[in-house]
Design a protein that fits this description.
Elements: H1 3-28, H2 34-51
Helix pairs in contact: 1-2
């Protein structure tokens, strides 16, 4: 596993926890939580880009 793949693996684990946090924040229905929920959504988008072989060719590489 190369460093990019390791980074993506760690990010996937973190984003999984952040998604749960985002759901809880949105369920709280507080306007104060919306900016944080938006930041979490941005991190989800960044992870999607990192996992896309067209955007991040290193994700396909080996060791």
């Amino acid at each position: 596993m190369n460093p990019t793949q390791k980074a993506v693996q760690h990010m996937e684990e973190g984003v999984m926890l952040l998604r749960a946090a985002k759901r809880n924040l949105l369920q709280a229905r507080s306007d104060q939580h919306v900016p944080l929920a938006m930041v979490i959504a941005s991190l989800e988008e960044i992870l999607d880009v990192l996992k896309d072989p067209e955007c991040t060719p290193a994700i396909l590489g080996g060791e």
